[in-house]
User: Which sequence fits this backbone?
């Protein structure tokens, strides 16, 4: 095991995969100097052919990544803030997601997108949104949301090797999070949830940055004798329903914690699946913990009120347990 | 540049194949034998043909909703295209794409596309892949005058220019985007001048003159292959038929152009024009043209029979082909 930050883990994954496959290359806005740090030093290491600063031109370079993937390369395309995907929605949702299916299985589109999402603290609504739910309703995309350094590395490596379009959403607040990462080749399969903390009284399914928040809450509640099982789906598509339902079978109570706006969130989808397939397992209604249905506000006071964090997770758990 | 007789005759045949195929598709659509929308490029065959003839097998193209001609010019098989248009399992996309989405990756046809302008970034990326792979394959993006007003057009030209990518942007200016005359919604009379904004060559050609198109395309492709970057070619042409077959179901009795204008352009038929050109140079005679027309008709009929004989997809196939 090696102790490292979330960003360092991502960088390791990028370096290992770029060394492994000469057809991988990096493109995005300011990937040379690296706004969030993960790609720093890669230009010096891999050179201008394989590490490319793009113009601020999301339709152009996102589409070019899709085209390059269709034509046999393996692009890793960084979209800075995930909200910028809105500018390139067509290329992701109409092209990358659909062209394999529409071509009757001819197209192979091994493109990986990385984007930073989530509430950063007074970045306001266009730089704070949790946007993976917007892609959840588009068949043809895989969506990964790592919650710690080990998963950040393992999921990204799997994403890059996957022959389908994968978007890896990295929470803006997790960059400095430290954790143990297994040495050597470390892959996390897409579609495998993880029990981040075993428990018996209630299942808390948490996505992305909500995982560490839920773990903190679970630790606190343990002092009150409440045992929370924290389950991280790790990928939203494919979704490991089996592991989620098995945990619910054990605890009979479940909350789903998601930083996205509540309406139409990934939490909503997971809650629906549990209601549909796990109704008999439940002793209480499924509870979603998600952010208010308003754009993420700027003022710290308002942002704190709008974005779901530890307090919301704790009260949801207490409410379901009547504790 | 001198073009060999064989190549000229091949281009003639390609135009005939496109014309005959699309006339048949149009009629089958009117007869309700084909589901969905069909957009034909009748009258615009020279641009697809002249460009396609400048490409080799490993070169790639992206196409549009009006793409049958591009696909045929890149070597697409008429029978599998027709079966796809019928929505049958024997079609190129097993019935999952239809007229607007035919692709043949083995031939470098990265697909027709239902989204106006979407092919340009993809072609740009395809060209980037060639560079990454160290290959000298060229990608051509076909698109219409309408697409030249999409952000995707501008972003792609810029990206291809700064990275000197081996891509040729082939604009077929047929005068209309749906039912809106291009000149009423486009800031410039000639889309080719937009190349200047991106520091790349822009060239206007008579899009009904297959020889002129081919010469321009061959030059642009050679330039791209040498690593000298992208070119924008604007082929001035005209859409004889409606935007979509049966367009009056959409616009009722509304008119957006004069009959006389259509007639003027019909008089500039690219196929008739090439026949005249070949005849004048003593390269072919009427019996050659008739023979080609006959062979092409038979081929298109065989394609229709192939499509009719092809089974519909099994509903169980609905979940297939989403992921690798
Ligand atoms: C993004 C997008 N906007 C609008 C449409 C609807 N539409 C289909 S074809 C077309 C006209 C396109 O004009 P042009 O690019 O000149 O091609 P042409 O049809 O003339 O061949 C439009 C607006 C679409 N398919 N995609």
Assistant:
């Amino acid at each position: 095991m090696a102790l490292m930050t979330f960003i360092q883990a991502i960088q390791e994954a990028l370096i290992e995969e770029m060394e492994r496959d000469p057809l991988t290359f990096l493109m995005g806005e300011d990937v040379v100097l690296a706004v969030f740090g993960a790609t720093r030093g890669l230009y010096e290491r891999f050179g201008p052919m394989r590490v490319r600063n793009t113009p601020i031109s999301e339709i152009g370079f996102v589409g070019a990544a899709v085209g390059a993937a269709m034509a046999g390369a393996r692009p890793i395309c960084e979209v800075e803030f995930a909200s910028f995907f809105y500018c390139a929605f067509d290329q992701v949702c109409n092209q990358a997601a659909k062209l394999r299916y529409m071509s009757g299985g001819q197209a192979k589109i091994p493109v990986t997108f990385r984007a930073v999402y989530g509430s950063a603290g007074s970045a306001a609504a266009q730089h704070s949104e949790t946007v993976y739910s917007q892609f959840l309703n588009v068949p043809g995309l895989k969506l990964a949301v790592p919650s710690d350094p080990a998963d950040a590395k393992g999921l990204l490596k799997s994403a890059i090797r996957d022959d389908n379009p994968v978007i890896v959403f990295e929470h803006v607040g997790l960059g400095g999070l430290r954790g143990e990462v297994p040495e050597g080749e470390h892959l996390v399969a897409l579609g495998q949830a993880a029990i981040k903390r075993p428990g018996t009284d209630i299942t808390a399914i948490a996505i992305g940055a909500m995982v560490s928040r839920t773990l903190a809450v679970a630790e606190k509640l343990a002092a009150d004798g409440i045992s929370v099982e924290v389950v991280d789906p790790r990928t939203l598509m494919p979704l490991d329903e089996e592991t989620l339902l098995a945990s619910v079978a054990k605890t009979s109570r479940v909350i789903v914690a998601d930083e996205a706006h509540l309406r139409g969130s990934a939490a909503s989808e997971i809650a629906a699946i549990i209601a549909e397939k796990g109704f008999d397992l439940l002793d209480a209604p499924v509870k979603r913990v998600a952010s208010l249905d308003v754009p993420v506000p700027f003022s710290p006071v308002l942002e704190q009120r709008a974005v779901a964090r530890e307090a919301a997770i704790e009260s949801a758990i207490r409410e379901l347990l009547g504790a | 540049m001198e073009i060999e007789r064989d190549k000229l005759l091949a281009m003639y045949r390609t135009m005939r194949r496109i014309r005959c195929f699309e006339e048949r598709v149009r009629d089958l659509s009117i007869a309700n034998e084909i589901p969905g929308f069909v957009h034909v490029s009748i009258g615009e065959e020279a641009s697809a043909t002249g460009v396609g003839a400048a490409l080799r097998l490993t070169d790639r193209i992206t196409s549009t909703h009006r793409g049958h001609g591009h696909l045929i010019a890149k070597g697409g098989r008429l029978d599998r295209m027709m079966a796809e248009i019928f929505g049958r399992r024997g079609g190129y996309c097993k019935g999952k794409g239809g007229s607007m989405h035919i692709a043949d990756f083995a031939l470098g046809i990265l697909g027709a596309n239902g989204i106006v302008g979407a092919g340009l970034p993809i072609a740009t990326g395809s060209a980037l892949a060639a560079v990454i792979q160290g290959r000298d394959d060229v990608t051509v993006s076909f698109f219409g005058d309408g697409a030249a007003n999409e952000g995707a057009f501008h972003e792609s030209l810029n990206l291809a220019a700064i990275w000197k990518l081996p891509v040729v942007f082939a604009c077929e200016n047929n005068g209309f985007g749906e039912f809106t005359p291009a000149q009423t919604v486009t800031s410039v009379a000639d889309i080719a001048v937009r190349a200047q904004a991106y520091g790349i060559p822009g060239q206007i050609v008579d899009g009904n003159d297959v020889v002129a198109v081919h010469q321009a395309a061959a030059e642009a492709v050679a330039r791209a292959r040498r690593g000298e970057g992208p070119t924008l070619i604007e082929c001035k042409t005209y859409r004889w038929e409606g935007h979509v077959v049966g367009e009056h179901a959409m616009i009722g009795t509304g008119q957006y152009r004069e009959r006389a204008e259509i007639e003027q352009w019909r008089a500039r038929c690219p196929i008739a024009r090439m026949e005249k050109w070949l005849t004048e140079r003593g390269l072919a005679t009427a019996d050659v043209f008739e023979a080609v027309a006959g062979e092409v008709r038979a081929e298109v009929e065989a394609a229709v029979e192939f499509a009719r004989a092809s089974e519909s997809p099994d509903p169980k196939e609905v979940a297939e082909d989403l992921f690798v």
